[in-house]
Amino acid sequence: MALLQHLCSAPLTRAIRSRSLALSSRTMSTTLSPTRVAHVDSHVLLGMSEQELQQLSLDLGQQSYRGKQLHHLIYKRKVKEIQHFSQLPQAFRNDLQEGGWRVGRSSIYQSVTAADGTVKLLIKLADNRLVETVGIPVEHDKGSFRLTACVSSQVGCPLRCSFCATGKGGYSRNLQRHEIVEQVLAIEEIFKQRVTNVVFMGMGEPMLNLKSVIEAHRCLNKDVQIGQRMITISSVGVPNTIKKLASYKLQSTLAISLHAPNQKLRETIVPSAKSYPLDAIMKDCRDYFLETSRRVSFEYTLLAGVNDAVEHAIELAELLHEWGPGYHVNLIPFNPIEGSEFQRPYNKAVQAFAGALESRKVTVSVRQTRGLDASAACGQLRNEFQKIPLQSDSNNLQSQLDVPIAC
Ligand code: SF4
User: Fold this and answer.
1) Cβ of 279: how many Cβ atoms within 10 Å?
2) Which residues form the Radical SAM core domain (predicted)?
């Protein structure tokens, strides 16, 4: 899901001209051609657990403590190249390289920093494809500091929500676990700070790549040491996946992008909703809460004149009460993207909507807009540099879905 689109609204061209921007990397070619390299790479160290690294060391004729050293070098020292593992014997480094192993860190292709400190990165993957990730720093009055990494789970997205630039840019492939983890490490590197929170709200639908998302979640929790409660997995809703996620009993937040209080309206905003009726989503969310005791958060993007009337808020409150406790609503005033038919609602409408929910005892928050000048919406920075339309592997995509995508 795309939180990124809510972070920024100014068109990229205007944002880049803005004085408040600091381009912290050199602009490269304006067109980047994806290459057809195999993207399922099993010889990547990043993403492996300490136990797996110990086993790898044993397999290569080393003692198991070398695996601990590997773990330290990858996750604590954040070394990016095998030949820079200076603690390890040269012969072991050579064996790793000759065996086709690599650390799995990619280069940062472009970065844009907004006046409020929000940083958007474009990461260039091994097959030349680009993904966006965002670092959002928040300093509180009491001196505490939070750094949230908003990570992508797919290259593009097949679900084509009507208000989302990522959806408009097409879909290419799922990210592997290390390609998710490395986004967090890249944010840490840029900020020279530990990431405290991770939200799977960047490019892509995490539930369509659940295997890699769960593997990355394990690594971020156990190896990068980010608390499970500090991780949020967001979804627009994919049939049969909420139940599957619940079975892992993670102590992380599930955020469902609802955007409408009824099925008819939802289908006009989220085309894939045709495959997953609202009642079925609400039932799965109730079961998720019962299974995990973790409150489900509902994301609701307010689109002026579409879904932002008080009547919609009343209908939403009724829907939530029908399905029981354990819910929170996060309102997101839409930030227009280039070429979008939707408008941002007036603050007055946002307040009226929130007030109608609160008066009906629904807990609600309004997301603060960050990084308005950092670049355009989610997917637009990537689209600017990756001009060749993304091609999906339809067999690969269909095999991940239990039902056809209705969009
Ligand atoms: S198109 Fe994909 S990335 Fe965009 S909002 Fe919908 S699910 Fe999220």
Assistant:
1) 12
2) 143-373
Q: What is the pLDDT of residues 261-314, one digit of tens each?
A: 999 999 999 999 999 999 999 999 999 999 999 989 999 999 999 999 999 999
Does the annotation count 378 as an active-site position? yes
Mutate to test the pocket of ligand 1, among 205, 209, 234 (most ligand atoms within 8 A of CB): 205
Residue 54: give its domain's CATH number: 1.10.150.530
Q: Residue 26 pLDDT > 90, yes or no?
A: no
Instruction: Give me the domain span that covers residue 75.
Output: 50-98
Would you state the structure tokens that stand for residue 331, as one six-digit string? Answer: 């309102």
One-character DSSP codes across 367-406: PPP--TTT-SSTTHHHHHH--SPP---HHHHHHH-SS---
State mean pLDDT over 165-187: 94
Count the domains in the chain: 2
CA of 395 to the centre of ligand 1 (A): 20
> Are both 14 and 55 inside the same structural domain?
no
**Quick check: is 106 in a domain?**
no
Evaluate whether residue 141 is within a structural domain: yes
Structure tokens at 93: 């480094």
Ligand 1 proximal residues by C-beta, below 6 Å: 1-2, 157, 159-161, 164, 166-167, 203-205, 236
> Is-catalytic flag, 189?
no
The verdict on residue 236 lying in a domain is yes
pLDDT digits (tens, 9 = 90+) for 51-92: 999 999 999 999 999 999 999 999 999 999 999 999 999 999
